[in-house]
Amino acid sequence: MFLRLISRPLLAKVKETTGIVGLDVVPNAREVLIGLYTKTLKEIQAVPEDEGYRKAVESFTRHRLKVCQEEGDWEMIEKRLGCGQVEELIEEARDELTLIGKMIEWDPWGVPDDYECEVIENDAPVPKHVPLHRPGPLPEEFYQTLEAVSKKDAPKVTSGEPQLKE
């Protein structure tokens, strides 16, 4: 009886398969994730501080690292993050590290201030199989609201919704 109480939780924690073809179980997934997330936070420092990519990567990586440090069990990590199995998270983290290296190489934020983009206008007819993405006219309510906001007047309610008072 005593052995059952002790061994049952231990046996429940062993993952035999991920259920995903080609994705093997990582027995020390927590430690691997902590290492990958720490490395990600170090490598992302090479990206300029004000770039949205860096902010996004730092944000979700810090969150995931914190969860991995707080939880000792792979099941709880998966449950709290809600982003798949820990083995999938390991693949995502490795992919992110690869992408960081490529982003640093490509330097998409390194556009000079004086760079001018050439606009090519072509009046050639569009083939029939290519859809024309021309938005339709905006509703009249849009222009009324825009006019009211630009005049700093309270917009007229035309939809029957309650009006907010300041």
Considering the chains and any ligands shown, give keywords for the structure.
single chain; 0% strand; 166 residues; mainly alpha; elongated
Describe the structure.
By secondary structure, this protein is mostly helical. The chain has a domain of 46 residues. Helix content is 51%, strand content 0%. Helix 2 runs antiparallel to helix 3 and helix 2 packs parallel to helix 5.
Chart the SSEs and their pairings.
Blueprint: H1 2-12, H2 29-43, H3 52-70, H4 74-81, H5 86-106, H6 140-150
Helix pairs in contact: 2-3, 2-5
GO cellular component, one term: mitochondrial inner membrane
GO biological process, one term: respiratory electron transport chain
Membrane topology: Peripheral membrane protein
Summarize the structure.
Keywords: Electron transport, Membrane, Mitochondrion, Mitochondrion inner membrane, Respiratory chain, Transport. The protein has 166 residues and is mainly alpha-helical.
Termini separation: 68 Å
Name the helicity range.
40-55%
pLDDT below 50 for ≥5 consecutive residues: which ranges? none
Mean pLDDT across every amino acid position: 84
The coarse silhouette is: elongated
Protein name: NADH-ubiquinone oxidoreductase-related
InterPro entries: NDUFA5
Keywords: Electron transport, Membrane, Mitochondrion, Mitochondrion inner membrane, Respiratory chain, Transport
Family: Belongs to the complex I NDUFA5 subunit family.
